[in-house]
Write a structure and sequence with these properties.
The complex is a heterodimer of chains A (265) and B (334). With 265 residues, chain A is α/β, with parallel strands linked by helices. Chain A has a single domain, classed as P-loop containing nucleotide triphosphate hydrolases (Rossmann fold). Chain A is 32% helix and 26% strand. The longest helix of chain A has 17 residues. The N and C termini of chain A lie far apart (44 Å). In chain B, helix 2 crosses helix 3, helix 4 packs antiparallel against helix 8 and helix 9 packs antiparallel against helix 12. The radius of gyration of chain B is 20 Å and the shape is globular. The chains are: A alpha/beta (265), B mainly alpha (334). The interface between A and B is medium-sized, with 31 and 25 residues.
């Protein structure tokens, strides 16, 4: 890992209209890091995510990518380095899986927008990697939720990003699909050194995959560090206002959160 | 371009040739196919037939080709841009503005003073006025899709109300003239008009063809399109202006021909899929078949009288389209 962080945010303040959502957030993301952003509903995860991606302008503070303020880099240049998978992706028209994935090559294409041999190779590789090549000619609406999510992941990976940002990529997926999606991302993080920032709802998934965690509460960073530093029962109980037990996963040695219902407390 | 696409394009091309021959053969007086072919290749042999073919039917056929292709492509672009399969070239008020321009010109008897160019010019100026207003309204809200739709639709109502206001106080014969124009027809023009209309239509078509992949990406939604490096606001402006330019030119020379811009892109989306790289040229070809075909029907069905072609596109297009929807599984429509 490089000493200089790939991405750095300083003193971010942001919100919608006159409602302030995040208030004074600063952190750095080293190259090759797998960073998770966790926190309760309404704690500002998606807002922070949108500020980092540049979709939402911060009221104060700045986002630096390789030392440059991202608001001064043209969107077309950013798209060559950073891929983003937001929540709730859909397609109004019934494009085929392959057409959708090919759109991910757009930032790298020249004026005539013709797919070259290398583009086709990348598309084939990401289809293989996400296990979607079997239905590359199908339409999106013919696929299950988990398959669709893998298609959109393939689309983002086709950008060959150095930094991948994902907002709840495993929402509404069964445990098998959750693991499949995150395994693909983890593999690229390990083998290609792709830096990952992922917003996750599921604390145990975050613990399992992330090197570093940022825990948000009411728009500021409540705690940051490795999963075992952040995921203690005191911290989780304070932030989520519910009783939990934290064990160690016997296989992965990572912290594992167990829930307790109100009745049994 | 897959094997399926190639087959569709070949079929469309053959249909186009067939429509061309039909369009030259039928009309006020019917010619046999052999005399049409003779008139095309040996015009000096039969001077009456060659005059009918070259002076009347060929210019009219190509006006139909231009307007049909133009409206279909504009509809296709508006559907993609607004991410709404119900959109069509007249959704954003261009028709309303053109109608106002044409109505004013007819009611004040301007064509009698300034000649044949008056009506197309007035309609085009009206279209230009309405697209400028829609643009100005939408530009104040980052050209967002809801603002664009709301602004366009409301301006469209406003213009229609003004047209009704003028008609309610105008002379009966002028009201009739206006209504005929509003229904749309391809009969009023000469060769020069085809050339004038061709320029903006072909320019607009070229622009949207070159940027078809951007249009594909825009349909994924503003957020994802931004992440893929697009400047969504300026792209929406470009597509809006290009499609409006095409529509304005079509409306100026042919009045408000309905249905073409709605159903042709739908029909072809079912055949070739939603990828605009393929869909735009396919729609252009589809419109270039559909409108001249309807026009041939419109001038033969009660010959020697003619029906406005807008009536035929509405009836024929509507019936074909409903049967097509009934046969298609609901989730396959878009």
């Amino acid at each position: 890992m490089d000493a200089a962080p790939l991405l750095k945010v300083t003193d971010l303040v942001a919100g919608y209209q006159d409602r302030k959502i995040i208030d004074g957030i600063s952190f750095g993301v080293p190259r090759g890091c797998f960073l998770g952003i966790i926190g309760p509903n309404g704690s500002g995860k998606t807002t922070l995510f949108r500020v980092i991606t540049g979709f939402l302008k911060p009221w104060e503070g700045e986002v630096l990518y390789q030392g440059k303020n991202t608001s001064r880099i043209p969107a077309s240049d950013i798209a060559k380095e950073i891929a983003v998978m937001p929540q709730g992706l859909e397609s109004t028209f019934s494009f085929s899986v392959e057409e959708l994935v090919a759109m991910g090559r757009f930032p790298h294409l020249g004026r005539l927008q013709k797919l070259g041999k290398r583009d086709r190779d990348v598309i084939r590789q990401v289809l293989e990697l996400t296990d979607t090549e079997d239905f590359k000619d199908k339409k999106l609406f013919e696929l299950s939720g988990g398959e669709r999510q893998r298609v959109f992941l393939a689309q983002s990976l086709a950008q060959e990003p150095k930094l991948l940002l994902l907002d709840e990529p495993t929402a509404h997926l069964d445990i098998g699909h959750q693991i499949r999606i995150l395994d693909v991302i983890k593999k690229l993080n390990r083998t290609e050194g792709m830096t990952v920032i992922v917003v996750l709802h599921d604390l145990n998934l975050a613990s399992l995959y992330c090197d570093q965690l940022i825990l948000l509460k009411d728009g500021f960073i409540f705690k940051e560090g490795s999963p075992s530093e952040v995921m203690t029962y005191e911290t989780i109980e304070a932030v989520y206002e519910t009783v939990v037990l934290v064990n160690e996963n016997p296989v992965t040695k990572r912290p594992h959160v167990l829930l307790v219902s109100r009745e049994q407390q | 371009m897959t094997y399926r696409h190639t087959k569709v394009f070949i079929a469309l091309f053959l249909l186009f040739i067939g429509t061309f021959l039909l369009g030259l053969a039928f009309g006020g007086s019917n010619l046999s196919l052999s005399s049409v072919v003779t008139a095309i290749f040996y015009p000096e042999k039969d001077s009456i037939a060659s005059t009918i073919v070259w002076q009347l039917r060929v210019p009219r056929f190509f006006l139909g080709v231009l307007v049909g292709a133009g409206l279909s492509v504009a509809g296709c672009v508006f559907q993609g841009l607004l991410r709404n399969p119900l959109a069509e070239p007249y959704t954003l008020g261009i028709s309303g503005g053109a109608a106002l321009g044409a109505t004013l010109a007819i009611v004040f008897g301007l064509p009698g003073v300034f000649g044949r160019i008056t009506l197309p010019l007035a309609a085009f100026l009206g279209a230009f006025l309405s697209l400028s207003l829609t643009y100005a309204v939408a530009a104040r809200r980052r050209f967002s899709i809801p603002t664009l739709i709301l602004g366009g639709v409301i301006l469209s109502f406003l213009f229609s109300a003004l047209v009704l206001l003028i008609l309610s106080v105008a002379d009966t014969d002028k009201v009739h003239g206006t209504i005929i124009w509003l229904m749309g027809d391809l009969s009023t023009t000469e060769t020069g008009m085809v050339r004038v209309a061709a320029f903006p239509i072909i320019c607009g078509l070229g622009i949207v063809l070159l940027m078809s992949q951007q249009l594909n990406i825009l349909t994924l939604g503003e957020e994802k399109a931004t992440y893929l490096g697009l400047n969504t606001e300026s792209l929406r402006k470009i597509f809006f202006l290009a499609a409006s330019l095409i529509t304005g030119a079509c409306v100026a020379v042919s009045g408000l021909i309905g249905f073409v811009g709605l159903i042709v892109p739908h029909f072809l989306r079912r055949l070739v899929g939603p990828n605009h790289k393929i869909l735009i040229p396919a729609s252009a070809l589809g419109g270039a078949i559909f409108l001249p075909l309807c026009d041939t029907i419109a001038r033969t069905i009660i010959a020697p009288l003619e029906l406005p072609v807008g009536v035929i596109t509405g009836i024929a297009g509507g019936l074909v389209f409903i049967s097509f929807i009934l046969k298609t599984k609901s989730w396959e429509i878009f």
